[in-house]
Design goal:
Layout: H1 3-7, H2 14-17, H3 19-27, E1 36-38, E2 46-47, E3 55-62, H4 74-90, E4 95-105, H5 111-127, E5 131-139, E6 144-152, E7 169-173, H6 178-187, H7 194-201, H8 209-215, E8 220-224, H9 228-239, E9 242-245, H10 247-255, H11 258-263, H12 268-274, E10 280-285, E11 294-300, E12 305-308, E13 311-312
Parallel strand pairs: 4-5, 9-12
Antiparallel strand pairs: 1-2, 3-6, 4-6, 7-10, 7-11, 8-10, 9-11, 12-13
Helix pairs in contact: 4-5, 6-7, 6-12, 10-12
C-alpha cells in the first residue's frame, strides 16, 4: 500500500491529527487486565509480576522486510507484531502480561490505518490476557513496529535453552512450515490455499503451551521463529548436545504442505525444517510430554549440532536478518 493510499479517503492523516491526538484516539475505550497497575498517561507504566521477576523481550517489524501492506492489512500487521513477541515469552515458560509499542510511519499515513494496526494488536493481546501499556509514535519514511513484551513466570524458574540433556526427547507444540509455505504462495502469486496464505500474515503461536511445558519439567525450550533446524541449533549449542530429529515423526508436517509445494515447485521439507514465523515451540523433556506436544526427536551425547535421521540437513536451515536469501 502506497503512502498515497494511506492518505486517501476521509480519514485525517497523522500530520493533521498530531502525535498526541492520535495517541488519545488509540487509547480511548481500552481496558487493561488486572496485571496492569498503571497504564498509559504518565512517563512510565507499572505492571504486577507475582514473584518479583519480569521477563522482557523485544522484536521489530519493518515494512517490506517483515510485512507488505499490499498483502497484509494493518490489522494483520498488528496481530503479527504482538504474536511473535508473545511467543518469545511463552518459550521461557511464562505468561505475557503487557506490551509496550513504538510505531513509526510517514506523516501522510491515514489515521484510520494506524487505528486498524492498534486494533489488531489489542485483538491479539486480549487473546492471551495482556494489555498494551505504553509506547511511542514517530515520523518515519516507512512503517516500523517495535514491540516489547513483559512476562510473568508465576513463581517458576525460566526455561532456558541450555538445559537439554542426553536421553531426553525433543517435542514441538504448534505447526511447522505453514508460514513459509504461505510466503512462497504469496511471492509466486498462487491463489487458493487460503489458510496457508493467511498463516503467513498472522501466525498462531500455541498460547499456554509454554507454561504447560514448564510445569511438565521442560529442560530447554525455544520459539521456532527462524526455522526448526536453525533454532534448535541454538539449543544444541547452549546445551552442548546433539539433537537428532526424526523424518518419520515430521512426515505429517511435510504431507500437509506437499500440494502447496507442488504448486510452486518447492520441497516441502525445506519449509518444515527451515521455515520460520509459525512461532511453534520446541522443547526437551526428560519425561512424558504434556498434551498438545508431539515428540520429533531425541537428545544424545555429541558435539553441538542438529541432525535429521543421523545426518546433517543440507538445505535451508532458517532465516538470518543479515545474510538470509529466503526473502
Amino acid at each position: 500500500m502506497s503512502n498515497d493510499a494511506h492518505a486517501s479517503g476521509d480519514s485525517p492523516t497523522l500530520r493533521q491529527l498530531g502525535e498526541f491526538g492520535m495517541i488519545d484516539r488509540l487509547m480511548a475505550g481500552r481496558h487493561q487486565p488486572t496485571a496492569v497497575a498503571l497504564g498509559p498517561g504518565d512517563d512510565a507504566a507499572m505492571v504486577f509480576a507475582r514473584d518479583g521477576r519480569t521477563l522482557v523481550s523485544t522484536d521489530m517489524l519493518v515494512q517490506d522486510c517483515h510485512f507488505r501492506l499490499d498483502w497484509s492489512t494493518p490489522h494483520d500487521v498488528g496481530r503479527k507484531a504482538v504474536a511473535q513477541n508473545a511467543a518469545d515469552i511463552e518459550a521461557m515458560g511464562a505468561r505475557t502480561i503487557a506490551f509496550v509499542v513504538a510505531f513509526g510511519a510517514p506523516a501522510d499515513t491515514a489515521t484510520v490505518q494506524v487505528s486498524a494496526l492498534a486494533d489488531g494488536m489489542w485483538d491479539e493481546a486480549v487473546r492471551i490476557g495482556a494489555g498494551i501499556v505504553g509506547g511511542d509514535l514517530v515520523n518515519c519514511p516507512q512503517w516500523v513496529v517495535s514491540v516489547t513484551a513483559l512476562g510473568d513466570l508465576g513463581g517458576r524458574a525460566p526455561v532456558l535453552r541450555s538445559g537439554a540433556c542426553p536421553g531426553s526427547v525433543i517435542a514441538v507444540a504448534g505447526e511447522l512450515g505453514h508460514s513459509a509455505a504461505g510466503y512462497s504462495l504469496w511471492r509466486n502469486g498462487i491463489q487458493g490455499f487460503d489458510d496457508l496464505r493467511r498463516r503467513h500474515l498472522v501466525p498462531r503461536p500455541p498460547y499456554g503451551q509454554g507454561q504447560a511445558a514448564a510445569e511438565a519439567g521442560a529442560q530447554a525450550m525455544i520459539d521456532v521463529s527462524d526455522g526448526l533446524v536453525g533454532d534448535l541449533r541454538h539449543v544444541a549449542q547452549a546445551s552442548g548436545v546433539t539433537l537428532v530429529l526424526s523424518a518419520d515423526a515430521l512426515a505429517p508436517d511435510r504431507e500437509a504442505l506437499v500440494t502447496a509445494a507442488d504448486a510452486v515447485d518447492a520441497d516441502a521439507w525445506s519449509w518444515v525444517l527451515g521455515g520460520g514465523e509459525d512461532h511453534a515451540l520446541a522443547a526437551a523433556f526428560a519425561g512424558p510430554v504434556p498434551a498438545g506436544w508431539r515428540v520429533i526427536g531425541r537428545v544424545v551425547d555429541g558435539p553441538a549440532r542438529v541432525l535429521v535421521d543421523g545426518k546433517e540437513w543440507p538445505g535451508y536451515a532458517g532465516w538470518q536478518s543479515f545474510g538470509s536469501s529466503a526473502r
